[in-house]
């Protein structure tokens, strides 16, 4: 089994560094861009971070984005000093010499606990709340719950709803959904910021084209998976592109 | 950039949304295609040597673009450098399609937008905010205005 090295890990005295031990690769450059991109952050502010078990606190500028907690030397820094990946952690208050302290704790025998301290009670509470709900898992649970709620309020009687914890065994009919009224609210086909797309952005003229009539979307080919929204989005996206093409060509003045 | 590598390694051992052996080629010029076990867990794509328990590396899937390359193959690149591509070769068109769909949905940002979409749709039908039951309706990250960025 290949071991990954870790900063600060000591070698046995007298032994040469093992060339087989290499750190796990990570797309750090992309991470840095994600840390500093223009999208609104989920929380930001100064926190004191304890260097290690017996180390001093350092004041750092923290930025929470998604399930990544970045920390910078200060608020104007272009690149983070580091990041704490927030999956599988718990956030708790701690007894510490420092006021307004809390900890981000990970499971596992040699797992690290990050002790942080805010500058006020309100800030501490805000961070504890934000961090404890920052995981991808948490968000996914909420989204799945909302998917089911939407299916329930749209479907009316007689529609089989998938059970929360298990996958449905047969394809379930997809509830009819009108096209979203605001094209700008549609997530892009690619991951990432909405403004980035190689396709020409939809620019409506004085009169936007009429939306297509309400219809039942065709059932997916397989069981409803965890994000039927994406499939619907694809279907509607194709429809929008086709309609846009028709509309644009009908506007052409020869 | 420092990061909690141990936790990332632990994450790579969690149940995956998708896992398969694919051909993978790194973004550097002259990279060779290698067989890798590729595993999608939350918004990370881990890749392992086929006989090893610890991942060679991971890709955070935020602000990424997944595009079709030649038949049965796709690439992942990132907004800040679209020419720098991680290539993946699948054993079938079907598998390729499946992976592309999954990867496009795998970001936190996509999930956030989905939430905002569903919240709005439910509000339109019921007149009520479904996030209230979770106590998170006031969170800035779930407001419509967040989509403008």
Automatic annotation (TrEMBL), chain B:
Q: Which residues form the PH domain?
A: 15-108
GO BP, one annotated term: retrograde transport, endosome to Golgi
The record's annotation in CDD domains points to: PH_PLEKHJ1 (cd13258)
Q: Record's Gene Ontology CC terms?
A: cytosol; early endosome; recycling endosome; trans-Golgi network
Query: Which protein, by its recorded name, is this?
Result: Pleckstrin homology domain-containing family J member 1
Species the sequence originates in = Theropithecus gelada (Gelada baboon)
Q: Which gene encodes it?
A: PLEKHJ1
């Amino acid at each position: 089994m290949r071991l990954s090295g870790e900063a600060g890990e000591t070698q046995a005295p007298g032994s040469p560094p093992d060339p087989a031990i290499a750190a796990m690769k990570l797309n750090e450059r992309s991470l840095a861009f994600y840390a500093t991109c223009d999208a609104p952050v989920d929380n930001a502010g100064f926190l004191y971070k304890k260097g290690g078990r017996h180390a001093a606190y350092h004041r750092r500028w923290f930025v929470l984005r998604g399930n990544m907690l970045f920390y910078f030397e200060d608020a104007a820094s272009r690149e983070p000093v580091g990041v704490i990946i927030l999956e599988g952690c718990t956030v708790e208050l701690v007894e510490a010499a420092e006021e307004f302290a809390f900890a981000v704790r990970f499971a596992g025998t040699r797992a690290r606990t990050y002790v942080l301290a805010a500058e006020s009670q309100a800030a501490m509470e805000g961070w504890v709340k934000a961090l404890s709900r920052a995981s991808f898992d948490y968000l996914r649970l909420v989204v799945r719950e909302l998917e089911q709620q939407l299916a329930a309020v749209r479907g009316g009687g007689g529609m089989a709803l998938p059970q929360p914890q298990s996958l449905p065994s047969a394809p379930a009919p997809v509830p009819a959904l009108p096209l979203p009224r605001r094209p700008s609210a549609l997530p892009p086909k690619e991951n990432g910021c909405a403004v980035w797309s190689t396709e020409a952005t939809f620019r409506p003229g004085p009169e936007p084209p009429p939306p297509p009539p309400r219809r039942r979307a065709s059932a997916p080919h397989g069981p409803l998976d965890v994000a039927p929204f994406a499939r619907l989005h694809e279907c509607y996206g194709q429809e929008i592109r086709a309609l846009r093409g028709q509309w644009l060509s009908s506007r052409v003045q020869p | 950039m420092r990061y909690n590598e141990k936790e990332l390694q632990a994450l790579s051992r969690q149940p995956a949304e998708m896992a398969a052996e694919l051909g993978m080629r790194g973004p550097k010029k002259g990279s060779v295609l290698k067989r890798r076990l590729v595993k999608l867990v939350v918004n990370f794509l881990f890749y392992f040597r086929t006989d090893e328990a610890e991942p060679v590396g991971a890709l955070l899937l935020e602000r990424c673009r997944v595009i079709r390359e030649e038949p049965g193959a796709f690439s992942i690149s990132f907004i800040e450098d679209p020419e720098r591509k991680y290539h993946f070769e699948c054993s079938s068109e079907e598998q390729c399609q499946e992976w592309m769909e999954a990867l496009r949905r795998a970001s936190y940002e996509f999930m956030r937008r989905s939430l905002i979409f569903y919240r709005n749709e439910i509000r339109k039908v019921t007149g009520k905010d479904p996030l209230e039951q979770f106590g998170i309706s006031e969170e800035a990250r779930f407001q419509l205005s967040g989509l403008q960025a």
